[in-house]
Amino acid sequence: MKRIIQIVLAAAVMTVVGCKEKKQSDDIITTRNEIVVPQASGPVRMQEYQQTKQVNWVGRTYTVDIKRMANDSLALVKDETGQSFVDNSISLRIVRADGSVFFSKTFTKQSFSDYLDEAYRQRGILEGLVFDKVDGNNLVFAASVSFPQTDEYIPLEVKVDNFGHVGIKRDENLDTYGNDDLDSE
Fold first, then answer.
1. Of the residues 3, 12, 20, 93, which has the maximum number of CB atoms within 10 A of its CB?
2. Cα-based distances in Å from 33 to 26, 37, 125, 142
C-alpha cells in the first residue's frame, strides 16, 4: 500500500509541475519567406501612350500630338537581372489650325545620346515626352530616359521654336511644384 501511495504522490507532483505556467518569451519565431518576382517570358513592352493638346502659341492655335510606341526595330535593353525590354520611340507632331503639319519628328533614345551617361545608353529606355509649356517662341517639352521599371531617370528638356528648330538639354531645374511662378522661401 505504501508503494501505491508513493506512486499516486509522484503522479500528483508531476501533474502539478507539468501544469505550472511556463515563462513566456517576447521573442516571435517565424520563418523567412523570400518573394520571388517571376520574370516575363519575353521582352517587356511599355503601354502605348498618346497626348493631344491644343495650345496658343505665337498668336495662333496649334495641336500638339505626342505618341509613344514600343519599337521592335530598336535594340533590346537588358536590366541588371537580365530581363529584356523593348525600347520606345516617340513621335511629336505640331499641327496648325488648318490641319497642315508644322513639325513632325520621331525621337528615340539615340536622339538624346549626347545627354546620357554610358549606363543609360546601355540599360535605359526612352520613357516619355510630354508637353510642358509655351515659353515665348518655344514650345517646351519634358522628356525622360529611365532604367526600366524604376524611378531612376535622366530628365531632359526639348524645345521646338517657331522655325521648327529643336533644342535639347538636360533638365537640371526640376519643377517639383508644378508651377514656375512660385517664390522660393
1. 93
2. 21, 13, 32, 41
The answer, yes or no, to whether residue 40 has pLDDT greater than 90, is no
Question: What is the chain's length?
Answer: 185
Secondary element (H or E) of residue 140: strand 138-146
pTM summary value: 0.73
> 101 lies in which domain range?
49-170
Ranges of H-type helices in the chain:
2-19, 118-123
Looking at residue 80, its amino acid is E
Q: How far is CA 88 from CA 37, 44, 79, 155, 182, in A?
A: 24, 11, 15, 16, 34
Q: Please give the tally of structural domains in the chain.
A: 1
pLDDT over 50 (residue 184)? no
61: in domain: yes
Answer whether residue 2 is part of any domain.
no
Q: What CATH number is associated with residue 102?
A: 2.40.128.510
Residues 99-123: tens digit of each pLDDT: 999 999 999 999 999 999 999 999 9
* Percent of residues, the chain, with pLDDT higher than 70: 74
pLDDT at position 41: 77
- Residue 131 in any domain: the answer is yes
Tell me which residue of 103, 120, 76, 117 sits closest to 158, measured CA to CA.
103
Q: What is the DSSP secondary structure assignment for residue 99, as one 8-state letter?
A: S
The answer to whether residue 24 is domain-embedded is no
Query: At 169, which amino acid appears?
Result: K
